[in-house]
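thread: overnight batch results

M.L. [08:02]
morning all. the overnight job finished for the chain we discussed friday. pasting input first so we're all looking at the same thing
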Amino acid sequence: MAFGPGGGSPDEIKGDINVTPLVDVCLVLLIIFMVVTPMLQSGVDVLLPNGPNAEKKPGKEGDLIISIKNDGTVFVGQNWIPDKDLTTYLRAEYQKDPSRAVQLKADKRINFGKVRMVMKAANEAEFTRIAIMTENQQAGKQMAQGKS
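M.L. [08:03]
and the structure it wrote out:
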């Protein structure tokens, strides 16, 4: 039996909304999104260079992601690889699946010589398809103008 303020009969329907379950569901969804969002990104986070003609190319899920950070450190996937071991590591990755392509993510603030060195190591490991990732310059302008 519920007794509300202002009296009323016990058979009267109470019109209040219980928001506690709604808040619980929203908090659970927020936690799920906070946990899943970092997993959606592949490789290490770098500041990509802008490209006026950058087109979205479909990559396969098994493609090898090589990231070069601003300080020159090289990551294959999430693993840091020293420069001296890079060719050996890439050769071992190629042996696992020769049909894989390489997607190269290099920070725009680094010297291009480092990118060249990584591309040479991938070539020596017998990879034949290497894509350099860039940000789409036009997409940024369109977003700033309110177009999608």
